[in-house]
Amino acid sequence: MLKGVAVSPGVVVGRVYKVESILHATEPVTLAAPELVAPELERFDLALTRAGLELESMIQKVESQIGREEADIFRSHLGMVRDPSLRQKVYSLVQSQRVTAMTALQQVMMQYISRFEHFEQQDYFRERMADLRDVFGRIAADLQGLEQQKDPDELPDYGPDPIVIVAHEILPSQSMSLGDQPLGGIVTEIGGGTSHASILSRSRGIPAVTGLPTVSTDVANGDLIIVDGNEGIVLLHPDPETAAAYRKKQREFFDIKHRLVENRDLPAVSSDGTPVELLANINSVSDAETANHTGAAGVGLLRTEYLFLTHPDVPDEEEQYRYYREIVLAMKGKPITIRTLDVGGDKSVPYLGRRVEANPFMGWRSIRLAFEHPRLYETQIRAILRAGVHGRVAMLFPMVTTLEELRFLNRMVDHCKTALTNEGLEFGREVRTGVMIEVPAAAICIDSILRETQFISIGSNDLIQYLTAADRDNSKVSHLCEPLSPAVIRVLMMILDACKRSGMPVTLCGEMAAQPRSFLVLFGLGLRKFSMSPAFVPAIKSLLAHVSTAEAERFAHHVLQLKTSEEIRHYLSDRLHEVSADLEKFDIMA
Ligand code: PEP
Ligand code: MG
Protein backbone atom coordinates (compact mmCIF):
# COMPACT_ATOMS: atom_id res chain seq x y z
CA MET A 1 0.00 0.00 0.00
CA LEU A 2 1.30 3.43 -0.95
CA LYS A 3 0.11 6.61 0.73
CA GLY A 4 0.07 9.72 -1.42
CA VAL A 5 -2.04 12.83 -1.78
CA ALA A 6 -5.71 12.43 -2.71
CA VAL A 7 -6.55 14.77 -5.57
CA SER A 8 -9.77 13.51 -7.09
CA PRO A 9 -12.32 11.46 -5.16
CA GLY A 10 -13.70 8.02 -5.96
CA VAL A 11 -12.40 4.48 -5.99
CA VAL A 12 -11.29 2.35 -8.93
CA VAL A 13 -9.86 -1.12 -9.36
CA GLY A 14 -8.09 -1.18 -12.69
CA ARG A 15 -5.11 -2.20 -14.78
CA VAL A 16 -1.93 -0.16 -15.01
CA TYR A 17 -1.02 1.62 -18.22
CA LYS A 18 2.21 3.57 -17.98
CA VAL A 19 2.39 6.78 -19.95
CA GLU A 20 5.87 7.25 -21.33
CA SER A 21 7.37 10.66 -21.15
CA ILE A 22 10.43 11.91 -22.87
CA LEU A 23 11.28 13.88 -19.76
CA HIS A 24 11.45 10.88 -17.53
CA ALA A 25 13.37 7.84 -18.64
CA THR A 26 11.70 4.49 -18.11
CA GLU A 27 12.98 1.04 -19.09
CA PRO A 28 13.83 0.78 -22.79
CA VAL A 29 10.92 -0.28 -24.97
CA THR A 30 11.95 -2.68 -27.71
CA LEU A 31 10.32 -3.40 -31.03
CA ALA A 32 8.64 -6.79 -31.21
CA ALA A 33 10.00 -7.78 -34.63
CA PRO A 34 12.88 -6.75 -36.93
CA GLU A 35 10.39 -5.69 -39.65
CA LEU A 36 9.22 -2.92 -37.33
CA VAL A 37 12.56 -1.09 -37.55
CA ALA A 38 11.96 0.52 -40.94
CA PRO A 39 8.45 1.86 -40.13
CA GLU A 40 9.76 3.12 -36.79
CA LEU A 41 12.48 5.10 -38.56
CA GLU A 42 9.90 6.44 -40.99
CA ARG A 43 7.75 7.57 -38.09
CA PHE A 44 10.74 9.28 -36.52
CA ASP A 45 11.52 11.11 -39.77
CA LEU A 46 7.93 12.23 -40.02
CA ALA A 47 8.05 13.50 -36.43
CA LEU A 48 11.25 15.42 -37.21
CA THR A 49 9.67 16.96 -40.30
CA ARG A 50 6.57 17.97 -38.41
CA ALA A 51 8.55 19.41 -35.50
CA GLY A 52 10.61 21.42 -38.03
CA LEU A 53 7.50 22.80 -39.75
CA GLU A 54 5.93 23.70 -36.41
CA LEU A 55 9.08 25.56 -35.43
CA GLU A 56 9.18 27.47 -38.73
CA SER A 57 5.64 28.67 -38.19
CA MET A 58 6.44 29.43 -34.55
CA ILE A 59 9.44 31.58 -35.53
CA GLN A 60 7.32 33.59 -37.89
CA LYS A 61 4.46 34.14 -35.43
CA VAL A 62 6.66 34.85 -32.43
CA GLU A 63 8.63 37.36 -34.41
CA SER A 64 5.51 39.25 -35.47
CA GLN A 65 3.54 38.96 -32.20
CA ILE A 66 6.23 38.99 -29.55
CA GLY A 67 9.70 39.93 -30.71
CA ARG A 68 12.84 38.99 -32.57
CA GLU A 69 14.84 38.01 -29.55
CA GLU A 70 12.18 35.52 -28.40
CA ALA A 71 12.03 34.08 -31.92
CA ASP A 72 15.77 33.42 -31.81
CA ILE A 73 15.19 30.72 -29.23
CA PHE A 74 13.18 28.81 -31.81
CA ARG A 75 15.79 29.34 -34.47
CA SER A 76 18.20 27.51 -32.20
CA HIS A 77 15.59 24.80 -31.59
CA LEU A 78 15.10 24.40 -35.32
CA GLY A 79 18.86 24.02 -35.65
CA MET A 80 18.76 21.14 -33.16
CA VAL A 81 15.80 19.43 -34.86
CA ARG A 82 17.54 19.61 -38.25
CA ASP A 83 20.94 18.62 -36.90
CA PRO A 84 21.97 15.53 -38.94
CA SER A 85 23.82 14.06 -36.00
CA LEU A 86 20.63 13.87 -33.90
CA ARG A 87 18.91 11.91 -36.66
CA GLN A 88 21.91 9.69 -37.13
CA LYS A 89 22.20 8.90 -33.39
CA VAL A 90 18.53 7.91 -33.11
CA TYR A 91 18.76 5.85 -36.30
CA SER A 92 21.74 3.91 -35.09
CA LEU A 93 20.15 3.10 -31.71
CA VAL A 94 16.89 1.94 -33.31
CA GLN A 95 18.80 -0.21 -35.80
CA SER A 96 21.41 -1.67 -33.48
CA GLN A 97 19.30 -2.19 -30.32
CA ARG A 98 15.87 -2.50 -31.93
CA VAL A 99 14.38 0.00 -29.46
CA THR A 100 11.50 2.35 -30.24
CA ALA A 101 12.28 5.82 -31.55
CA MET A 102 10.98 7.22 -28.26
CA THR A 103 13.43 5.14 -26.24
CA ALA A 104 16.26 6.07 -28.60
CA LEU A 105 15.32 9.73 -28.29
CA GLN A 106 15.39 9.44 -24.52
CA GLN A 107 18.84 7.89 -24.61
CA VAL A 108 20.18 10.57 -26.93
CA MET A 109 18.73 13.22 -24.68
CA MET A 110 20.58 11.69 -21.73
CA GLN A 111 23.83 11.83 -23.73
CA TYR A 112 23.27 15.53 -24.44
CA ILE A 113 22.49 16.22 -20.80
CA SER A 114 25.65 14.56 -19.58
CA ARG A 115 27.61 16.69 -22.04
CA PHE A 116 26.09 19.89 -20.64
CA GLU A 117 26.76 18.79 -17.08
CA HIS A 118 30.42 19.62 -17.52
CA PHE A 119 29.66 23.30 -17.74
CA GLU A 120 30.47 25.08 -14.55
CA GLN A 121 27.78 27.70 -14.78
CA GLN A 122 24.54 26.51 -13.23
CA ASP A 123 22.39 29.06 -15.09
CA TYR A 124 23.83 28.08 -18.43
CA PHE A 125 23.22 24.43 -17.67
CA ARG A 126 19.64 25.04 -16.60
CA GLU A 127 18.87 27.04 -19.70
CA ARG A 128 20.33 24.42 -22.02
CA MET A 129 18.33 21.78 -20.14
CA ALA A 130 15.18 23.77 -20.71
CA ASP A 131 15.97 24.00 -24.43
CA LEU A 132 16.66 20.27 -24.61
CA ARG A 133 13.40 19.49 -22.89
CA ASP A 134 11.54 21.72 -25.32
CA VAL A 135 13.13 20.28 -28.43
CA PHE A 136 12.99 16.65 -27.42
CA GLY A 137 9.54 17.17 -25.94
CA ARG A 138 8.30 18.58 -29.24
CA ILE A 139 9.67 15.67 -31.28
CA ALA A 140 8.30 13.22 -28.72
CA ALA A 141 4.87 14.84 -28.80
CA ASP A 142 4.85 14.42 -32.57
CA LEU A 143 5.90 10.80 -32.21
CA GLN A 144 3.10 10.21 -29.74
CA GLY A 145 0.64 12.04 -31.97
CA LEU A 146 1.63 9.82 -34.87
CA GLU A 147 1.26 6.81 -32.63
CA GLN A 148 -2.28 7.87 -31.82
CA GLN A 149 -3.15 8.49 -35.46
CA LYS A 150 -1.83 5.06 -36.32
CA ASP A 151 -4.30 3.49 -33.95
CA PRO A 152 -7.04 5.71 -32.60
CA ASP A 153 -8.02 3.24 -29.88
CA GLU A 154 -4.48 2.91 -28.74
CA LEU A 155 -5.15 2.28 -25.06
CA PRO A 156 -4.61 -1.42 -24.52
CA ASP A 157 -7.49 -3.76 -23.87
CA TYR A 158 -7.04 -5.38 -20.47
CA GLY A 159 -10.47 -6.95 -20.38
CA PRO A 160 -13.27 -5.66 -18.17
CA ASP A 161 -11.06 -3.64 -15.81
CA PRO A 162 -10.70 0.08 -16.53
CA ILE A 163 -7.31 1.58 -17.37
CA VAL A 164 -5.42 3.42 -14.66
CA ILE A 165 -2.77 5.77 -16.02
CA VAL A 166 0.50 5.66 -14.08
CA ALA A 167 3.02 8.38 -14.93
CA HIS A 168 5.86 10.40 -13.50
CA GLU A 169 3.80 13.48 -14.28
CA ILE A 170 1.20 14.44 -16.82
CA LEU A 171 2.21 17.22 -19.18
CA PRO A 172 -0.40 19.65 -20.53
CA SER A 173 -0.20 18.16 -24.02
CA GLN A 174 -0.73 14.68 -22.60
CA SER A 175 -3.59 15.82 -20.43
CA MET A 176 -5.33 17.09 -23.54
CA SER A 177 -4.68 13.99 -25.64
CA LEU A 178 -5.72 11.69 -22.78
CA GLY A 179 -8.77 13.86 -22.24
CA ASP A 180 -10.91 11.87 -24.67
CA GLN A 181 -9.74 8.41 -23.65
CA PRO A 182 -11.81 6.11 -21.45
CA LEU A 183 -9.79 6.25 -18.24
CA GLY A 184 -10.58 4.77 -14.85
CA GLY A 185 -8.02 6.60 -12.72
CA ILE A 186 -4.73 8.48 -12.65
CA VAL A 187 -1.69 8.00 -10.42
CA THR A 188 1.36 10.26 -10.63
CA GLU A 189 4.70 10.52 -8.90
CA ILE A 190 4.87 14.28 -8.68
CA GLY A 191 2.37 17.13 -8.73
CA GLY A 192 -0.07 18.44 -6.16
CA GLY A 193 -3.80 18.85 -5.93
CA THR A 194 -4.00 21.47 -8.63
CA SER A 195 -1.47 20.18 -11.17
CA HIS A 196 -2.46 19.26 -14.74
CA ALA A 197 -3.07 15.64 -13.82
CA SER A 198 -5.35 16.67 -10.99
CA ILE A 199 -7.30 19.10 -13.12
CA LEU A 200 -7.67 16.46 -15.82
CA SER A 201 -8.85 13.81 -13.38
CA ARG A 202 -11.30 16.09 -11.67
CA SER A 203 -12.70 17.42 -14.91
CA ARG A 204 -13.33 13.80 -15.89
CA GLY A 205 -14.56 12.87 -12.43
CA ILE A 206 -12.14 9.99 -12.08
CA PRO A 207 -10.22 9.01 -8.94
CA ALA A 208 -6.63 10.20 -8.72
CA VAL A 209 -3.70 10.14 -6.32
CA THR A 210 -0.39 11.94 -6.62
CA GLY A 211 2.86 12.23 -4.66
CA LEU A 212 4.02 8.61 -5.03
CA PRO A 213 7.68 9.00 -6.01
CA THR A 214 8.45 5.44 -7.11
CA VAL A 215 5.13 4.20 -8.38
CA SER A 216 6.00 3.98 -12.07
CA THR A 217 8.94 1.68 -11.37
CA ASP A 218 6.91 -0.41 -8.91
CA VAL A 219 4.36 -1.50 -11.51
CA ALA A 220 4.23 -3.01 -14.98
CA ASN A 221 1.62 -2.52 -17.68
CA GLY A 222 -1.42 -4.69 -17.06
CA ASP A 223 -0.86 -5.01 -13.27
CA LEU A 224 -3.92 -4.83 -11.07
CA ILE A 225 -4.03 -1.58 -9.09
CA ILE A 226 -6.48 0.05 -6.69
CA VAL A 227 -6.80 3.83 -6.49
CA ASP A 228 -8.63 5.39 -3.58
CA GLY A 229 -8.96 9.08 -4.39
CA ASN A 230 -10.71 9.87 -1.11
CA GLU A 231 -7.99 8.63 1.19
CA GLY A 232 -5.02 9.13 -1.17
CA ILE A 233 -4.15 5.44 -1.11
CA VAL A 234 -2.89 3.19 -3.91
CA LEU A 235 -2.73 -0.59 -3.53
CA LEU A 236 -0.46 -2.53 -5.84
CA HIS A 237 -1.00 -6.21 -6.69
CA PRO A 238 -3.99 -6.57 -4.30
CA ASP A 239 -5.21 -10.02 -3.28
CA PRO A 240 -8.62 -11.14 -4.62
CA GLU A 241 -10.51 -10.30 -1.38
CA THR A 242 -9.15 -6.76 -1.24
CA ALA A 243 -9.90 -6.24 -4.93
CA ALA A 244 -13.46 -7.50 -4.40
CA ALA A 245 -14.00 -5.17 -1.43
CA TYR A 246 -12.81 -2.16 -3.42
CA ARG A 247 -14.84 -3.17 -6.48
CA LYS A 248 -17.88 -2.92 -4.25
CA LYS A 249 -16.88 0.61 -3.17
CA GLN A 250 -16.24 1.48 -6.82
CA ARG A 251 -19.73 0.34 -7.83
CA GLU A 252 -21.28 2.34 -5.01
CA PHE A 253 -19.42 5.49 -6.02
CA PHE A 254 -20.36 5.21 -9.69
CA ASP A 255 -23.96 4.28 -8.90
CA ILE A 256 -24.34 7.44 -6.84
CA LYS A 257 -22.62 9.48 -9.52
CA HIS A 258 -24.88 8.20 -12.28
CA ARG A 259 -27.95 8.64 -10.17
CA LEU A 260 -26.99 12.21 -9.30
CA VAL A 261 -26.60 13.28 -12.94
CA GLU A 262 -30.34 12.83 -13.23
CA ASN A 263 -30.71 16.05 -11.22
CA ARG A 264 -29.21 18.02 -14.13
CA ASP A 265 -32.47 19.81 -14.98
CA LEU A 266 -33.43 20.56 -11.39
CA PRO A 267 -32.72 24.02 -9.99
CA ALA A 268 -29.78 24.38 -7.58
CA VAL A 269 -31.50 25.41 -4.35
CA SER A 270 -30.96 24.75 -0.67
CA SER A 271 -33.56 22.83 1.34
CA ASP A 272 -35.18 26.16 2.30
CA GLY A 273 -35.14 27.46 -1.27
CA THR A 274 -32.01 29.70 -1.47
CA PRO A 275 -30.88 29.64 -5.11
CA VAL A 276 -27.21 29.08 -5.94
CA GLU A 277 -25.38 29.20 -9.26
CA LEU A 278 -23.27 26.13 -9.95
CA LEU A 279 -20.94 26.91 -12.83
CA ALA A 280 -18.24 24.87 -14.53
CA ASN A 281 -14.47 25.25 -14.81
CA ILE A 282 -13.54 24.09 -18.28
CA ASN A 283 -10.46 23.79 -20.46
CA SER A 284 -11.87 22.67 -23.79
CA VAL A 285 -14.90 22.22 -26.04
CA SER A 286 -15.41 18.69 -24.77
CA ASP A 287 -15.46 19.99 -21.18
CA ALA A 288 -18.21 22.43 -22.27
CA GLU A 289 -20.24 19.44 -23.43
CA THR A 290 -19.67 17.73 -20.07
CA ALA A 291 -20.78 20.95 -18.34
CA ASN A 292 -24.08 20.81 -20.25
CA HIS A 293 -24.47 17.13 -19.51
CA THR A 294 -24.02 17.57 -15.76
CA GLY A 295 -26.34 20.57 -15.55
CA ALA A 296 -23.89 23.43 -14.93
CA ALA A 297 -25.58 26.84 -15.09
CA GLY A 298 -22.77 28.19 -17.26
CA VAL A 299 -18.99 28.44 -17.31
CA GLY A 300 -17.40 30.32 -14.41
CA LEU A 301 -13.87 29.77 -15.66
CA LEU A 302 -12.51 28.90 -19.10
CA ARG A 303 -8.79 28.35 -18.64
CA THR A 304 -7.51 29.57 -22.00
CA GLU A 305 -3.93 28.51 -21.38
CA TYR A 306 -4.71 24.98 -22.55
CA LEU A 307 -5.29 26.39 -26.02
CA PHE A 308 -1.88 28.06 -25.89
CA LEU A 309 -0.10 25.13 -24.26
CA THR A 310 -1.30 22.62 -26.81
CA HIS A 311 -1.12 24.84 -29.86
CA PRO A 312 2.00 24.17 -31.93
CA ASP A 313 2.69 27.92 -32.05
CA VAL A 314 1.07 31.17 -30.87
CA PRO A 315 -2.66 31.07 -31.71
CA ASP A 316 -3.56 34.22 -33.64
CA GLU A 317 -6.68 36.36 -33.21
CA GLU A 318 -8.78 34.41 -35.72
CA GLU A 319 -7.82 31.04 -34.24
CA GLN A 320 -8.62 32.27 -30.74
CA TYR A 321 -11.88 33.89 -31.83
CA ARG A 322 -13.05 30.69 -33.53
CA TYR A 323 -12.10 28.60 -30.50
CA TYR A 324 -13.91 30.87 -28.01
CA ARG A 325 -16.93 31.11 -30.31
CA GLU A 326 -17.15 27.33 -30.50
CA ILE A 327 -17.21 27.09 -26.70
CA VAL A 328 -19.68 29.98 -26.36
CA LEU A 329 -22.02 28.31 -28.86
CA ALA A 330 -21.62 24.93 -27.15
CA MET A 331 -22.91 26.55 -23.92
CA LYS A 332 -26.17 27.45 -25.69
CA GLY A 333 -26.87 30.89 -24.24
CA LYS A 334 -25.55 30.19 -20.73
CA PRO A 335 -23.05 32.71 -19.32
CA ILE A 336 -19.37 32.05 -19.89
CA THR A 337 -16.35 33.68 -18.27
CA ILE A 338 -13.18 33.56 -20.31
CA ARG A 339 -9.97 34.02 -18.36
CA THR A 340 -7.04 35.71 -20.08
CA LEU A 341 -3.83 33.76 -20.48
CA ASP A 342 -2.50 32.50 -17.14
CA VAL A 343 0.85 31.01 -18.05
CA GLY A 344 4.14 31.03 -16.20
CA GLY A 345 4.23 29.38 -12.80
CA ASP A 346 3.65 25.71 -13.43
CA LYS A 347 2.53 26.22 -17.03
CA SER A 348 5.22 27.53 -19.32
CA VAL A 349 4.90 28.34 -23.00
CA PRO A 350 8.26 28.38 -24.71
CA TYR A 351 7.45 31.20 -27.12
CA LEU A 352 7.43 33.80 -24.38
CA GLY A 353 11.14 33.63 -23.99
CA ARG A 354 13.32 31.37 -21.99
CA ARG A 355 13.61 32.62 -18.46
CA VAL A 356 14.67 30.21 -15.81
CA GLU A 357 13.23 31.46 -12.57
CA ALA A 358 14.06 30.32 -9.07
CA ASN A 359 10.47 30.87 -7.92
CA PRO A 360 8.22 30.56 -10.96
CA PHE A 361 4.97 30.76 -8.97
CA MET A 362 6.10 34.09 -7.59
CA GLY A 363 7.68 35.19 -10.80
CA TRP A 364 6.82 36.41 -14.22
CA ARG A 365 3.45 34.78 -14.72
CA SER A 366 -0.05 35.53 -15.87
CA ILE A 367 -1.06 39.17 -16.51
CA ARG A 368 2.45 40.21 -15.42
CA LEU A 369 3.45 39.23 -18.97
CA ALA A 370 1.07 41.79 -20.46
CA PHE A 371 3.37 44.71 -19.71
CA GLU A 372 6.19 43.29 -21.77
CA HIS A 373 4.00 41.66 -24.42
CA PRO A 374 1.02 43.95 -24.89
CA ARG A 375 0.39 42.65 -28.40
CA LEU A 376 -0.07 39.09 -27.15
CA TYR A 377 -2.70 40.27 -24.65
CA GLU A 378 -4.42 42.65 -27.03
CA THR A 379 -4.81 39.81 -29.48
CA GLN A 380 -6.53 37.72 -26.86
CA ILE A 381 -8.70 40.54 -25.53
CA ARG A 382 -9.87 41.33 -29.06
CA ALA A 383 -10.71 37.67 -29.69
CA ILE A 384 -12.70 37.46 -26.44
CA LEU A 385 -14.57 40.70 -27.18
CA ARG A 386 -15.42 39.41 -30.65
CA ALA A 387 -16.64 36.08 -29.25
CA GLY A 388 -18.94 38.19 -27.06
CA VAL A 389 -21.20 38.68 -30.08
CA HIS A 390 -22.27 35.02 -29.82
CA GLY A 391 -23.34 34.78 -26.17
CA ARG A 392 -23.11 36.06 -22.61
CA VAL A 393 -19.35 36.44 -22.35
CA ALA A 394 -17.33 37.95 -19.49
CA MET A 395 -13.57 38.45 -19.36
CA LEU A 396 -11.52 37.63 -16.28
CA PHE A 397 -8.01 38.81 -15.35
CA PRO A 398 -5.99 36.39 -13.21
CA MET A 399 -3.21 37.17 -10.71
CA VAL A 400 -3.99 40.86 -10.33
CA THR A 401 -1.79 42.10 -7.47
CA THR A 402 -2.07 45.89 -7.60
CA LEU A 403 -4.53 48.53 -8.68
CA GLU A 404 -2.01 49.82 -11.24
CA GLU A 405 -2.14 46.47 -13.00
CA LEU A 406 -5.91 46.53 -13.08
CA ARG A 407 -5.93 50.04 -14.50
CA PHE A 408 -3.45 49.02 -17.16
CA LEU A 409 -5.65 46.08 -18.17
CA ASN A 410 -8.81 48.16 -18.17
CA ARG A 411 -7.12 50.69 -20.45
CA MET A 412 -6.05 47.86 -22.71
CA VAL A 413 -9.66 46.67 -23.01
CA ASP A 414 -10.83 50.20 -23.85
CA HIS A 415 -8.10 50.53 -26.40
CA CYS A 416 -9.12 47.22 -28.03
CA LYS A 417 -12.76 48.29 -28.16
CA THR A 418 -11.82 51.55 -29.89
CA ALA A 419 -9.61 49.70 -32.35
CA LEU A 420 -12.33 47.14 -33.15
CA THR A 421 -14.85 49.93 -33.65
CA ASN A 422 -12.47 51.78 -35.98
CA GLU A 423 -11.86 48.60 -37.94
CA GLY A 424 -15.60 48.00 -38.24
CA LEU A 425 -15.35 44.62 -36.50
CA GLU A 426 -18.30 43.47 -34.43
CA PHE A 427 -17.77 42.77 -30.72
CA GLY A 428 -19.88 42.13 -27.63
CA ARG A 429 -20.56 45.51 -26.07
CA GLU A 430 -21.92 43.84 -22.96
CA VAL A 431 -18.74 41.89 -22.18
CA ARG A 432 -18.01 42.59 -18.52
CA THR A 433 -14.53 42.44 -17.05
CA GLY A 434 -13.62 40.99 -13.68
CA VAL A 435 -10.66 40.35 -11.42
CA MET A 436 -9.49 37.11 -9.87
CA ILE A 437 -8.63 37.52 -6.24
CA GLU A 438 -5.83 35.04 -5.79
CA VAL A 439 -2.95 37.11 -4.44
CA PRO A 440 -3.16 38.08 -0.76
CA ALA A 441 -2.16 41.69 -1.59
CA ALA A 442 -5.27 42.03 -3.75
CA ALA A 443 -7.43 40.37 -1.12
CA ILE A 444 -6.27 42.86 1.50
CA CYS A 445 -6.90 45.84 -0.79
CA ILE A 446 -10.13 44.43 -2.18
CA ASP A 447 -12.00 47.67 -1.45
CA SER A 448 -10.01 49.65 -3.99
CA ILE A 449 -10.24 46.88 -6.57
CA LEU A 450 -14.01 46.69 -6.21
CA ARG A 451 -14.36 50.30 -7.33
CA GLU A 452 -12.70 49.61 -10.67
CA THR A 453 -14.04 46.28 -11.81
CA GLN A 454 -17.38 44.62 -12.56
CA PHE A 455 -17.11 41.25 -10.88
CA ILE A 456 -14.84 39.16 -8.68
CA SER A 457 -13.77 35.56 -8.94
CA ILE A 458 -11.87 34.07 -6.03
CA GLY A 459 -9.03 31.84 -7.22
CA SER A 460 -8.71 29.88 -4.02
CA ASN A 461 -6.07 27.48 -5.39
CA ASP A 462 -3.53 30.25 -5.72
CA LEU A 463 -4.85 32.34 -2.87
CA ILE A 464 -4.28 29.42 -0.50
CA GLN A 465 -0.79 28.66 -1.76
CA TYR A 466 0.29 32.30 -1.42
CA LEU A 467 -1.39 32.76 1.92
CA THR A 468 0.20 29.66 3.42
CA ALA A 469 3.51 29.94 1.53
CA ALA A 470 3.03 26.30 0.49
CA ASP A 471 3.50 25.36 -3.19
CA ARG A 472 0.21 23.97 -4.52
CA ASP A 473 2.05 21.38 -6.62
CA ASN A 474 4.38 20.10 -3.95
CA SER A 475 2.92 17.05 -2.25
CA LYS A 476 5.39 17.46 0.64
CA VAL A 477 3.62 20.61 1.80
CA SER A 478 0.09 19.77 0.77
CA HIS A 479 -0.93 19.52 4.45
CA LEU A 480 -0.26 23.28 4.66
CA CYS A 481 -1.91 24.19 1.37
CA GLU A 482 -5.24 23.50 3.04
CA PRO A 483 -8.56 25.21 2.29
CA LEU A 484 -10.07 24.23 5.62
CA SER A 485 -7.68 26.26 7.72
CA PRO A 486 -8.46 29.21 10.00
CA ALA A 487 -6.38 31.71 7.98
CA VAL A 488 -7.96 30.76 4.66
CA ILE A 489 -11.49 30.89 5.99
CA ARG A 490 -10.94 34.30 7.58
CA VAL A 491 -9.56 35.75 4.36
CA LEU A 492 -12.44 34.30 2.37
CA MET A 493 -14.90 35.79 4.81
CA MET A 494 -13.22 39.18 4.46
CA ILE A 495 -13.46 39.07 0.63
CA LEU A 496 -17.08 37.91 0.70
CA ASP A 497 -18.06 40.60 3.18
CA ALA A 498 -16.41 43.32 1.09
CA CYS A 499 -18.22 42.11 -2.04
CA LYS A 500 -21.50 41.95 -0.19
CA ARG A 501 -21.14 45.50 1.16
CA SER A 502 -20.59 46.89 -2.31
CA GLY A 503 -23.09 44.63 -4.08
CA MET A 504 -20.34 43.11 -6.22
CA PRO A 505 -21.05 39.75 -7.94
CA VAL A 506 -18.58 37.16 -6.65
CA THR A 507 -17.80 33.57 -7.64
CA LEU A 508 -15.26 31.15 -6.19
CA CYS A 509 -13.59 29.05 -8.86
CA GLY A 510 -10.86 27.15 -7.02
CA GLU A 511 -11.01 23.43 -6.37
CA MET A 512 -12.50 23.88 -2.90
CA ALA A 513 -15.81 24.95 -4.48
CA ALA A 514 -16.46 21.28 -5.28
CA GLN A 515 -15.33 19.79 -2.00
CA PRO A 516 -18.44 19.06 0.05
CA ARG A 517 -17.07 20.16 3.42
CA SER A 518 -15.64 23.39 2.00
CA PHE A 519 -18.88 24.00 0.12
CA LEU A 520 -20.86 23.89 3.38
CA VAL A 521 -18.68 26.64 4.88
CA LEU A 522 -18.66 28.81 1.74
CA PHE A 523 -22.42 28.60 1.42
CA GLY A 524 -22.71 29.43 5.11
CA LEU A 525 -20.44 32.46 4.64
CA GLY A 526 -22.88 33.78 2.03
CA LEU A 527 -21.29 32.71 -1.26
CA ARG A 528 -23.93 32.05 -3.95
CA LYS A 529 -21.86 31.40 -7.08
CA PHE A 530 -19.49 28.48 -7.33
CA SER A 531 -17.44 27.30 -10.28
CA MET A 532 -16.06 23.76 -10.32
CA SER A 533 -15.06 20.80 -12.48
CA PRO A 534 -18.29 19.89 -14.29
CA ALA A 535 -18.22 16.34 -12.93
CA PHE A 536 -18.93 17.65 -9.42
CA VAL A 537 -21.95 19.79 -10.22
CA PRO A 538 -24.53 17.01 -9.59
CA ALA A 539 -23.06 16.05 -6.20
CA ILE A 540 -22.86 19.65 -5.00
CA LYS A 541 -26.40 20.31 -6.21
CA SER A 542 -27.58 17.33 -4.21
CA LEU A 543 -25.64 18.45 -1.13
CA LEU A 544 -27.23 21.90 -1.38
CA ALA A 545 -30.69 20.35 -1.52
CA HIS A 546 -29.92 18.57 1.77
CA VAL A 547 -28.92 21.65 3.75
CA SER A 548 -30.74 24.82 4.82
CA THR A 549 -29.27 28.31 4.73
CA ALA A 550 -29.56 28.69 8.51
CA GLU A 551 -27.82 25.35 9.11
CA ALA A 552 -24.92 26.27 6.82
CA GLU A 553 -24.63 29.68 8.50
CA ARG A 554 -24.44 27.94 11.83
CA PHE A 555 -21.67 25.63 10.54
CA ALA A 556 -19.69 28.60 9.19
CA HIS A 557 -20.12 30.53 12.41
CA HIS A 558 -18.83 27.60 14.42
CA VAL A 559 -15.89 27.03 12.05
CA LEU A 560 -14.82 30.65 12.56
CA GLN A 561 -14.36 29.90 16.28
CA LEU A 562 -12.08 26.90 15.67
CA LYS A 563 -8.34 27.31 15.92
CA THR A 564 -6.82 24.49 13.87
CA SER A 565 -7.38 22.83 10.51
CA GLU A 566 -7.77 19.50 12.21
CA GLU A 567 -10.64 20.76 14.35
CA ILE A 568 -12.29 22.34 11.31
CA ARG A 569 -11.97 19.18 9.25
CA HIS A 570 -13.36 16.97 11.99
CA TYR A 571 -16.21 19.30 12.77
CA LEU A 572 -17.21 19.53 9.11
CA SER A 573 -16.81 15.78 8.55
CA ASP A 574 -19.35 15.18 11.30
CA ARG A 575 -21.74 17.77 9.85
CA LEU A 576 -21.36 16.36 6.35
CA HIS A 577 -22.06 12.88 7.64
CA GLU A 578 -25.27 14.11 9.24
CA VAL A 579 -26.33 16.00 6.12
CA SER A 580 -25.62 13.19 3.67
CA ALA A 581 -23.41 10.15 4.15
CA ASP A 582 -23.51 9.42 0.40
CA LEU A 583 -21.95 12.76 -0.45
CA GLU A 584 -18.94 12.09 1.77
CA LYS A 585 -17.77 9.94 -1.12
CA PHE A 586 -17.21 13.13 -3.13
CA ASP A 587 -14.84 14.68 -0.65
CA ILE A 588 -11.14 14.24 -0.24
CA MET A 589 -11.00 13.04 3.32
CA ALA A 590 -7.30 12.41 3.75
C1 PEP B 1 -7.22 29.29 -8.74
O1 PEP B 1 -6.08 29.72 -8.59
O2 PEP B 1 -7.99 29.01 -7.80
C2 PEP B 1 -7.78 29.06 -10.09
C3 PEP B 1 -9.03 28.73 -10.26
O3 PEP B 1 -6.96 29.16 -11.14
P1 PEP B 1 -5.82 28.10 -11.53
O4 PEP B 1 -6.09 26.85 -10.76
O5 PEP B 1 -5.92 27.92 -13.00
O6 PEP B 1 -4.58 28.82 -11.10
MG1 MG C 1 -4.99 30.67 -10.15
Could you write a compact summary of the structure shown?
This protein is an alpha/beta fold and 590 residues long. The protein folds into three domains: 126 residues, Phosphohistidine domain (Glucose Oxidase, domain 1); 114 residues, Enzyme I, Chain A, domain 2, CATH 1.10.274.10; 319 residues, Alpha-Beta Barrel (TIM Barrel), CATH 3.20.20. The chain has 22 helices and 16 strands.
Low-confidence stretches: 148-153
The separation of the N and C termini measures: 15 Å
- CA-atom Rg in angstroms: 24 Å
User: What is the molecular shape?
Assistant: globular
The helix fraction, in percent, is 40-55%
Number of strands: 16
Fourth CATH level, the homologous superfamily of the largest domain: Phosphoenolpyruvate-binding domains
- Average pLDDT over all residues: 89
What is the CATH top level name of the largest domain?
Answer: Alpha Beta
CATH architecture descriptor of the largest domain? Alpha-Beta Barrel
Ions, cofactors and other ligands present here are: phosphoenolpyruvate, magnesium ion
Query: So how many helices?
Result: 22
CATH level 3 topology of the largest domain: TIM Barrel
